[in-house]
Amino acid sequence: MSIVIRDVREHELDSILALNNAAGPTILPLDAARFRKFFDTAEYFRIAERDGTLAGFLVGFGSEADHDSSNFHWFREHCDRFFYIDRIVIASRRRGGGVGRAFYADAQSHAELRYPQLTCEVFLEHDADPVRLFHGSFGFHEIGQHVMPESGIRASMMAKNLCSYEWVRDTYGDALPGEPWLSRPRGALPRSAAAEPAGA
C-alpha cells in the first residue's frame, strides 16, 4: 500500500492527460500539446503510483519560468520569488488516501531549498471547502482572489511561507551540496550555472 512519487516518463503522458481531463470541474481540461509543453518545460512534473498503478500527478514551476498561466502571472505580480503548483490531480479512487499529502510533502521538499514561498490556487465556483480545508491544514493561507480571464472562474490565491528557505540560502547560497536527494526533478533548469547541484 506504499505511495511512490517519481518523475513522469514520456510514454505516460496520454494516461496522465486522460486522468486530468476526467478530474471534474475543479481541474481545467487540457489538450495533448499543453501536456507536452509541461513535460518539456515544467520544473517539477511527477506522478504518484500506489500498488503499481497511476494515482495522480503534480506539475509545478519556479517563479522565473516561461509559463503562460494567468494565475502564475498573478503570483508574479504579488510575490517576489515562489514555487507555483499549477495543478495536482488525484485519481478518484485514491482521494482521501494520503496521495495529496505525499505530493505536497515532496513538492515542498523541492521548493523549500530554492524558494521562500509555495503558491497555488483553489477554484471557488464549485464545492471548494474540502480543497480549501486541505490547503489550510497544510499551512496555506489566502493572499487574494483572481478571476481567470480565459474562463471567468474565480480562484482563491494561496501561499505558504517556507521557513527552511532562509537558512538554506544563508548557509549555501545557490550552491547546494551534491547529494542525490537534492537533485532537481527531471527537466528542471537551474536559475544560474551556480544553482545546479554538483553531480546532478
TrEMBL record:
SUPFAM superfamilies: Acyl-CoA N-acyltransferases (Nat) (SSF55729). Gene3D superfamilies: 3.40.630.30. It comes from the Bacteria. It holds the Pfam family Acetyltransf_10. PROSITE patterns: GNAT (PS51186). The keyword Transferase applies. GO terms for molecular function: acyltransferase activity, transferring groups other than amino-acyl groups. Keywords: Transferase. This is GNAT family N-acetyltransferase.
